[in-house]
């Protein structure tokens, strides 16, 4: 069988949720995301190493603010990278695509939008309601 496309996933109406073709599709997507994040991290490291000292205090402040922003972005990407690696492990052990709270299918459309999702929409909403309830 040919590789599945995004459209095939979004239009899927079969009974065999998370079959081998689905798993292969999401594995490739996650590996591609991982590669992009690693490339970004390398580019940032190179960029930070290439910078030279600037004597002007205003220029230096601007550069430091840019560095801080770039590092915050990389930190978010580092966290996403951990989620991607966890999702890849879930694919290997057969638990990918199923809610970690309920065991129910997360759903192909949700996984297309967020391939690292570990909760169904209902479970995610329930957790967010609980957080808000206890945060007040």
Question: Any overview of this molecule?
Answer:
This protein has 136 residues and is mostly helical. The protein has 2 domains: 18-47 and 56-96, DksA, coiled-coil domain (Four Helix Bundle (Hemerythrin (Met), subunit A)); 99-136, no CATH class. 69% of the residues lie in helices and 0% in strands. It is built from 5 helices and no strands. The protein has helices at residues 6-10, 20-50, 57-93, 108-113, 121-135. The chain is extended, with a radius of gyration of 20 Å. The N and C termini lie far apart (52 Å). The model has no long low-confidence stretch (mean pLDDT 88). It is found in: Cytoplasm. It comes from Pseudogulbenkiania ferrooxidans 2002. InterPro entries: DksA_N (IPR048489), DksA_RNA_pol-bd (IPR012784), DnaK_N (IPR037187), Znf_DskA_TraR (IPR000962), Znf_DskA_TraR_CS (IPR020458). Interacts directly with the RNA polymerase. Belongs to the DksA family.
Number of domains: 2
Total helices: the number is: 5
Amount of helix: 55-70%
Q: Output mean pLDDT.
A: 88
**How is the biggest beta sheet arranged?**
none
Q: How far do the termini sit from each other?
A: 52 Å
* The CATH topology of the largest domain: Four Helix Bundle (Hemerythrin (Met), subunit A)
Shape: extended
- Low-pLDDT residue spans: none
Q: What Rg, in angstroms, do the CA atoms define?
A: 20 Å
CATH level 1 name of the largest domain: Mainly Alpha
Can you name the CATH architecture of the largest domain?
Up-down Bundle
